[in-house]
Amino acid sequence: MKKTITFLLFILALQFAFAQNFQGEATYKTSRKIDIQLDSTQMSSDQHKLMLEMVKKQFQKTFILSFNKEESIYKEDKPLESPQPAGVEIMVVNTSGSDVLYKNLKEKRYTNQNESFSKLFLIKDKLQELDWEMTGETKFIGDYECYKATTTREEEVLESGISINGDKDLEADMDAEPKMREVVVTAWYAPAIPVNNGPQNYHGLPGLILEVNDGTSTMICSKIVLNPDKKVKIEEPTKGKELDQAKYDEIMEKKIQEMQERMRSSWSDDGGQNVEIRIGG
User: Please, where are the H alpha helices in the chain?
Assistant: First the structure.
């Protein structure tokens, strides 16, 4: 009897040690639906197709989530950038990006180190509590059985817009007041991976989130390495101008407006074709 108790205590100790040291890396592929309608008098069908492909590539990226039971680092695995075709300059304005996102689930906070408009920012704020609804649906992602959960959120969204060489009507649409919409987020999580974490700011489910879709953008895990031989390095970023999320959003909106004004003043004198696409989110 004594040997049995000792053995059980030993197993429990091993399980506790495993839980404390549990770590891994998950690779996510991201994509976004893009639908741009253009006047055929301004751009040929071949140019339109080329532009769509170029814009789609802006959102087809690879991210690495390095995690343990309490912390994580989420950052882009950046490839070498290919040059844009001569004569066309495309600028995608996307205010939802992140260079290095650190999450501390135990302390319910995050630090987002982001370089925007040639300045380094350090956004520190509380993690948002997500009200997930379990649906009971299941599917496999790779080797992992995943369960479906959904949540909704109200967000201020700028309609996706495009402006070519100073098109005033389209510029007016882009300058309109942001609209509110309800976004349905669908997530698939794997209980076999015992961390309540996921890509970007998604978290709070009883297992690692392997796929997220909000109707326009998708993040799906393509590779998982659990407890690698080399210890996963998770360090909270410290460099950059420190501010909270609301202040950062305010600064970005002001910078975008200033940039639009500069581009409008230069378009009339520019012989090339300049395209600005603004993505809400």
Answer: 2-21, 45-59, 168-174, 245-267
Nearby residues of 111 by Cβ (< 8 Å), 6 or more positions away: 101, 102, 122, 123, 124, 236, 237
Q: Which residues, in sequence order, are CB contacts of 169 under 8 Å at separation 6+?
A: none
Closest to 110 measured CA to CA, from 204, 226, 219, 225: 204
Half-sphere exposure for 269 (CA within 13 Å, toward CB) = 4
The per-residue pLDDT for 35 is 58
Cα 6 to Cα 22: distance, rounded to the nearest angstrom: 24
**Secondary structure element (H or E) that encloses residue 112, with its range:** strand 109-116
pLDDT digits (tens, 9 = 90+) for 104-162: 999 999 999 999 888 999 999 999 999 999 999 999 999 999 999 999 988 776 544 44
Q: Which pLDDT band, with edges at 50, 70 and 90, does 267 fall under?
A: low
Range 256-261, long-range pairs (CB < 8 A, 24+ positions): 256/93, 256/95, 259/93, 259/117, 260/171, 260/174, 260/175
Amino acid letter for position 33: K
Q: What is the dihedral of CA 163, 56, 245, 76, to 10 degrees?
A: -140
For the chain, how far is it from start to end, CA to CA, in angstroms?
Answer: 61
Phi-psi region of 65 (alpha: psi -120 to 50; beta: other; left: phi over 0): beta
DSSP letter for 18, please.
H
Q: Write b or e for each residue in 83-112: b if 16 or more Cβ atoms lie within 10 A of its Cβ, otherwise e.
A: eeeeeeebeebebeebbbbbbebeeeebbb
- Asked whether the predicted pLDDT for residue 88 surpasses 60, the reply is no
Domain ranges of the chain: 21-279
- Is the pLDDT at 14 greater than 50, yes or no? no
Residue 73 is given by DSSP the state E
3-class state of residue 106 by DSSP: coil
Tokens 């989130």 sit at which residue? 209
